[in-house]
Amino acid sequence: MTTLPELAARRCYSVVNPLHSAIYFAPDFGQELAKLGLEDGAAAYFVGRAAPMGRAGAGTITATFFNFSHDLIARHIPAAWDVVSPEAALEARLRAADSVLRRVLGEDVIASKEMAEAAELALRATEACSRPARPLYAAHADLPVPDAPHLALWHAASLLREHRGDGHLMTLVSAELDAVEALASHTATGQGMSTKWILRTRGWSVEEWEAGRQRLRDRGLLTADNELTEAGERLRQHLEKETDRLDAAPYEHLGAEGVARLTELATAFSTTARENGAFPADLRGKS
Fold first, then answer.
1. Which of 11, 80, 123, 222 could form a disulfide with 216 if both were Cys (CB 3.0 to 4.6 A apart)?
2. Which Pfam families does its entry note (predicted)?
3. Do the beta carbons of residue 127 and residue 255 sit within 8 Å?
4. φ and ψ at 205, to 5 degrees?
């Protein structure tokens, strides 16, 4: 087994993931779905991310996405599948990924040898991902790898994202955190989605959000002014360390040299994407 420098795998993931997730903050996918008749933009995320699982029901999506209100999901699923099939959604998603990456990275980067190299490295890492107990990853792993290097990288980033995400949900359940508590404790680190964006996108009411925070206070994890206590800090550190452990295989398979190179390449790509407006400026923060 390859020994990687401490946190090397987490750092690599953190710069690869934005190359996938940029699609969720761009209008392109919603526009592609609107052409197919699904004009409710709120449904786009559920349709796009769940499509690899086929015609998944609201319960399945709630279980696998974890941090969304089931009521919000049920307002859109399964009705959205009557408008856009999972197969059509996957084709639209790939078209959107193409247009988003071309816009935020530029044609020179898309056509570069560095892009092809990054795609090859990321795909090699995914060879060591595992399907059991990882439903979102497993569904994505059944999809074909696109031919174009930038879309192959996007696909590989999707696999690495869902593989780590499925493992992370295992740690949240083990820590007995529900969806709101998990979100609120992550927001309190300053690295998670801001309260504004959570309330806008996750379907929780202000009352439900504050009730979740109160449960964290009752467990001694959050202070009265919504800062993590020492126990809260230890818990969040444990969650990330345990997620790292569950997600180590793809990066150990790639090896220290490959991880370092993929991190270098993906850092340059994700930095360019951020500078070109791939993500809202207020997406992360404690408030």
1. 222
2. HTH_67
3. no
4. -80, 165
> Which of 160, 178, 72 is CA-nearest to residue 123?
160
Return the HEC string of 190-209: CCCECHHHHHHHCCCCHHHH
Cα(62)–Cα(24) distance, integer angstroms:
18
User: Do residues 51 and 93 lie in contact, with contact meaning Cβ atoms separated by under 8 Å?
Assistant: yes
Nearby residues of 111 by Cβ (< 8 Å), 6 or more positions away: none
Nearest alpha-carbon partner for 198 in 80, 69, 73, 74 = 69
- Whose tokens are 């990288």? That residue is 153
Query: pTM score > 0.70 for this model?
Result: yes
Residues 262, 16: contact at Cβ < 8 Å? yes
Closest CA relative to residue 18, chosen from 190, 118, 154: 154
Query: Residues of the chain whose pLDDT is less than 70?
Result: 1-2
Long-range contacts at 139-143 (CB < 8 A, ≥ 24 apart): 139/52, 139/53, 139/54, 140/52, 142/52, 143/52, 143/90
What is the distance between the alpha carbons of residues 96 and 167, in angstroms, rounded to a whole number? 27
Encode 191-201: b = buried (16+ Cβ within 10 Å), e = exposed. ebbbbebbeee
Helix axis angle for 149-174 and 113-126, nearest 10°, is 40
Taking Cα atoms as reference points, which of 129, 164, 136, 153 lies closest to residue 52?
136
Q: Six-digit token pair at 128?
A: 């060591």
Residue with tokens 């750092």, as numbered in its chain: 11
Helices (H) and strands (E) in the chain, counts: 15, 0
